[in-house]
Amino acid sequence: xxxxxxxxxxxxxxxxxxxxxIALGVAWVMLLDTPRGKVRAVALWAVAILLLAGIGAxxxxxxxxxxxxxxxFDALGGLNTLLSVLNFILSLVQxxxxxxxxxxxxxxxxxxxxxxxx
Length: 118
What we know:
Shape: elongated
Helix content: over 70%
Radius of gyration: 19 Å
Low-confidence stretches: none
Strand content: under 5%
Distance between the termini: 67 Å
Number of strands: 0
Number of helices: 3
Largest sheet: none
């Protein structure tokens, strides 16, 4: 695998995750503009967990390509099992992030609205 093909494959792999990472970045910025409190802290943690899990999944998808580019074909067999376990762990981490985000949303929606100034 030449460097041009490897670079193209890496860019495509990153490109698939880019919209989600951008959306999580926008969510992070939006949360920074909200009043401080327990709900905000939990929501920030949830978005941070989801961002880290997204980046981790991207790294895990690129790892086999790097082994192929380096010519370490015998290491790929053992890497498959390790990647399966790590992808499962990342799925659990993402599930935790989504539950935290849902909890923060429910808590924010249950709060009474401030009286409108009309």
